[in-house]
Fold:
Amino acid sequence: MSEAILWKTLKEKQMMGFDFDRQRPIDNYIVDFYCKDLMLAIEVDGASHYHDDAPLRDEIRQKKLEELGVRFLRFDNDEVKTNINGVLDTIREWINAHPELVGRVDEECHPPLNPLRGGDFEEESSLTSPPGRGQGVGGKFFHFKQFSVRHDRSGMKVGTDGVLLGTWADVTNATRILDIGTGTGVIALILAQRTQPFVQIEAVEIDEHACTDAGENFNASPWASRLTLYHLPVQKISPSNLFDLIISNPPFFQNSYKPPTPKRITARHTEELTFSEILEITDKLLKENGRLNIILPPTEGAQFVELAKKKNYACSRKWSFRTRKEKPVERLLLEFCKVNHVCEMGELLLYQKAEEWSDQYRKLTRDFYLKG
Structure:
């Protein structure tokens, strides 16, 4: 329905005279709306985009198309339904902010288009998986076995990255944990479920909308008394005691087009918190024998490892995550400490065959996903 609403305002060159196509194939993918002259794709994200691994699938898909020169604007389903004028204003603002693209028609710079064959479309690098039964209610909540996460106001929704990091991190002997950039609070909640009742978890979030979601999620959980939320930059916190474990699903899009809303910029671009700052904060707040855990794409992960070495942090665990054996590595799960020892190496597969989760991934997440 939302796509139909937006299409009524885009078709027949209603948007500032630009010609948009609907359901346009680009390379091995299909985008909701596409303007060839602007190389602009517009996506409307409904509830299905917030199930299980769908956020990671969208992220990988967008990154591959951005490498071909496609630019993206994304809107939530509800946003289109309830604020179509705001959506149209955002599109106009984007076009006005890119005068160098207006009027350009250069076929050679457009990504290759693959026509649909026989009515079927093969998305080779997608992470398609049936949603977990009962997970996601209208895109507003994501339900786990012991808690639910409201994420409709946050810039970034519940995704595979956060669940991976929260379930993979070693919480042995940790009594004080800090979650940097908690977003909706999903990592902190996973850690609360995994740890003993005496473990205290503090979470920091700079974005007001995400903080609102996280605060409600913490208060509604069984571990509200153990979770503390700070709405301020992590650089400004002054804890009374140091932490045994610091964990972060940090921003990592350093060069891609910045989304139009400030909350999405903060969530996924290294504008508010750089990798160097994360390490400086860790040096200030982590106990001498403590651990830092993060998740990053391979390129950014390698950069972080090199920066960590300069700060005298050794990589003590390094696991790669890929969707299938034949696919490239898509994420690195990294643990750092100041004690030098042999780095534990590992690999995690999402699917062992077809759309069936691997035994390893199922074991890691079975206490959380309804599907598990």
